[in-house]
Amino acid sequence: MSRVVVKCGGAVAGDAAAAILALADGGHEVCVVHGAGPQISKEMERYGLEVEFVGGRRVTSGAALVLVRRSLAAVNAALCAALGPRALGLFGDELGLHAIHAPALGLVGDPLPCRPPQLEQALAAGRIPVVAPLAVGPLNVNADEAAAALAVGLEAERILFVTDVPGVLRHGSVVETIAAAEADRLLDAGELEGGIVPKLRAAVAAARSGVRAEIGETAVVV
To answer: Residue 150 is part of which domain span?
Structure first.
């Protein structure tokens, strides 16, 4: 039985349920990490808070963090409902997910690999843990980075990034594979921007730790 971590963005969380269930029904242990990007931005705008990203990561004030948790809770509940009785909704800060504080971004952290006992127990019992990406503090954590940290800590075989783009785009086309070194070069040169930046950094980190990483149709290889 292989272990798979699936990261799905807030924009596609509802659509990801069928793919997640197919993996679970195929005999895989599946841990899900989700974001809530569009929902959080909408809530922040509704309350008059500035929406700002640096390198694809959200700048998060104390007031924003309240809305982050609220939005994550709503997406978590909806995704668990779509997955059915096997799903188990969890928050990373309650699991003991730790992160290094990145004060330049406010209440944001860089997550560290971990192997929460509650996740191990859930997977062993045939459940599908659905994790909202907050770290102890609490700190807001990018969902892509949280998924990679858990994939490494749980010694997953694969990490799949389910997103609203088909994969890594170069010159208007999806690339089937991208080497970690080439990904580093593109990222360091600033040739990529937006949400693909933390996604690709997270995939590279996972791949270098021995986890097979795929962003849509693109495999990230070492």
So the answer is: 3-163
